[in-house]
Design a protein that fits this description.
With 314 residues, the protein is an alpha/beta fold. It has helices at 9-20, 42-52, 70-73, 78-87, 123-129, 152-159, 266-279, 297-308, and strands at 3-6, 25-27, 34-38, 62-63, 92-97, 113-117, 136-137, 165-168, 179-184, 187-192, 232-234, 244-248, 258-259, 285-288. Bound molecules: adenosine monophosphate (AMP) and magnesium ion.
Length: 314
């Protein structure tokens, strides 16, 4: 069993020591639990890929502890600066051209861009207080392609001894990954819908559109099959068939094994999604009720579509 410790000044200081000396620590964020390594340490970054079984061509998000640190690693233009001021710290990842200074080559999968995020979580300040300012690479703390973890127990189940320590901060409040935007000049495209709904960007970006799978920016969250349980997944189900578990959303007459939100609240559904997919993973097929596409529904449907996709497309 990995060393699981509740978040405290002492445990965060110990986690910072492990990271500084090349170890791996699973950390809670406002989105999901991340598997962290010091981003400038080639060997530690390689261990992240190994522990997850993640293909080396899939780049990692660089997590900084202070918004101002973005300029160390990326060329920050006016649009990026505006978005950072408005959404950071928070669940927005911004892809930008690299600056002169680079994190570990392995983390960047040979791209000339870098994905950066400043998470909104208390341990960043606690690590700064003990003199560690990152940056960290931090993909979700699960085996590649599987369902992301939203509790320390999920991480322990997926990664076991592959991680040196797990900081337990309870259940992640958003429960779904960050929104990923790529910025080129003063335009932006949506690479991955996520915890910040697309319409929140309307005051800053007029024509935000989702980029369909693009080999050039091949990355894990963009693979057709990802976030997938072992069970088959049947979407937009309005009935429950033999041998299926029913995953409901909102009030329903169908006998449901789990309801993502009894009241049809999308934020609650996002928070419960990965827990539910893990809980129901012992059946042949999970039948999922229709989820509306507005607000956080876009990200939930994105993950469900990938969970339902043929695993050959991983
Ligand atoms: P994960 O950390 O597993 O949630 O996934 C990382 C996500 O970051 C991927 O889905 C990509 O969309 C994105 N990503 C990371 N680096 C880049 C990059 N340089 N260019 C485009 N997307 C990136
Ligand atoms: Mg992931």
């Amino acid at each position: 069993m990995p060393d699981i410790q509740k978040i405290s000044e002492e445990s965060v200081a110990k986690a910072a020591d492990i990271l500084k000396s090349g170890g791996l620590v699973a950390l809670p964020t406002e989105t999901v639990y991340g598997l962290a390594a010091f981003a400038l340490d080639d060997e530690a970054v390689a261990r992240v890929y190994n522990a997850k079984g993640r293909p080396s061509h899939n780049p990692l998000i660089v997590h900084i502890f202070r918004p101002a640190d973005a300029k160390n690693w990326a060329q920050v233009n006016d649009l990026a600066e505006t978005l950072m001021a408005h959404f950071w710290p928070g669940p927005l990842t911004i892809v930008l051209p690299k600056s002169g200074k680079a994190v570990s080559q392995a983390a960047g999968a040979d791209l000339d861009t870098v994905a950066i995020r400043c998470p909104d979580i208390s341990w960043t300040k606690a690590m700064l207080a003990v003199g560690f300012s990152g940056p960290l690479v931090m993909p979700s703390a699960n085996r590649s392609g599987h369902v992301s973890p939203t509790t320390a127990g999920h991480v322990a189940y997926d990664l076991g001894d592959k991680v040196d320590m797990i900081l337990d901060g309870g259940t992640c409040p958003n429960g779904i990954e960050s929104t990923v935007l790529k910025i080129e000049d003063n335009h932006a495209v949506l690479l991955r819908p996520g915890a910040i709904p697309t319409d929140a960007f309307a005051p800053f970006i007029s024509d935000l559109r989702l980029v369909k799978s693009d080999a050039h920016i091949s990355a894990p969250g963009m693979l057709k099959s990802h976030y997938a349980p072992k069970a088959k997944v049947r979407l937009n189900a309005t009935d429950k068939r033999n041998g299926e578990a029913f995953l409901a959303f909102g009030p329903t007459d169908i006998e449901a094994e789990f309801n993502l939100s009894d009241t049809g609240n999308l934020a609650e559904a996002a928070r419960n999604l990965y827990h539910a997919l893990r809980l129901l993973d012992n059946v042949d097929c999970i039948a999922v009720a229709p989820i509306p596409m507005h607000g956080l529904g876009e990200a939930i449907n994105d993950r469900l579509n990938r969970a339902a996709a043929d695993k050959k497309n991983r």
